[in-house]
Model the fold of this input.
Amino acid sequence: MAIDFPIQYRSEAGTGQRQVVMFAENAGELFFPPIAWQVIEHLGIGGWHRVMFTSQSLVIAQLPSGNVATVTVPDQAELELSTGNGSTMLEQTGVGPVPQTIRIRNAESSAEPGSSIELTLEKGGAAYMRMSIPADEAATATFTIPRSISFALTTGAAAGAPLDMQSLQQVATFEFGTLPSLVVLLVEEGGTVKFKLRV
Amino acid sequence: MVAAMRLRIDNESDNTRDELTLFICRPKEAPIAWRVLMLGHGRRFDVELGPLELDISWNRGATGMRRKLQSPYGLFSFEPDGSQFRIRHAGRTRRGGEVVVESRVRLRGGISCGLRAGDRLLMRYRPIAFSQRIAIEIGCTLAASLTRGAAEGEPLDPAAVVQELSPIPLRDGRVILRGSLETGYVLR
Done:
């Protein structure tokens, strides 16, 4: 889908002092846990939260030198990170063969061995996915963007920080499908709270 | 003012081009376009002003809480409840006819209070900080204008107003739009 997708959350139950987090499941990436895309706090009954799952992503490359390069691309793109004449550039070089995949290639460089480049995807103005690749050797990072969004209850989460997967409760994943938007409710059912899709 | 009101609007004019925009006037602030009715979509519109909800938002409008109001007056406190917030009915106001909200939370950017009627935004105010109050008064009339390019839920741009019309009393009733491009339009 090439349009921005609105996601709404409504709390019809209290969370009992826990935060609600929204995150993307990192399909296939063992070493980089999901980060908290949205952290929703303080909401009791009657609470709501709105965010746009933008069809484009802002890609941010943070180099060990402190330089930052950014580019905005759709969710299927091939990018090249290059350094020349003291400046760093992130450029889209193609579309790539796999849908919902952003691939970033970094050429070998004279960066210090052991240093790394941090790559972040932002959607709706907030960090959505993050991983690091070595800065001193040729490497490729592959972000797979799911057509779904996950919700969970937790404590101690911070927006943009990796989630402690062990401490997530009531994890629920909602597929976008062909819907024009998503409304997710937190309801009380059978003595416990859970996330449900509003139909 | 009654908490729920039914209004029937019949278009007996020649206008099928413009929008009929309904809103509540406020002193010193641009009104929010509550309903933008496309005159080209039909001859009769049934509009209900209710149920009323107090809507408090923060986080640059991304997060908020709502509470249904039984009536459009009272004092409400937006306050912490453990790690959650709540909208607590705190009593009566000295003056009748207004909803007063006091902020008892500390949030960067403050809280923005508004009223929704029938799940559509009726009024929204500038953010207030901890210990500040805002008084929201609906009044007893609904303002109406013929517009072009108005957007529901957004401040009404004066440039979008084609012709101002007489205000409608906030009670159950029926009004008729009459007139023509040559003579001008009247809503009564």
Observations:
- The radius of gyration of chain B is 18 Å.
- Residues 129 and 151 of chain B are 29 Å apart (CA to CA).
- The mean pLDDT of chain B is 91.
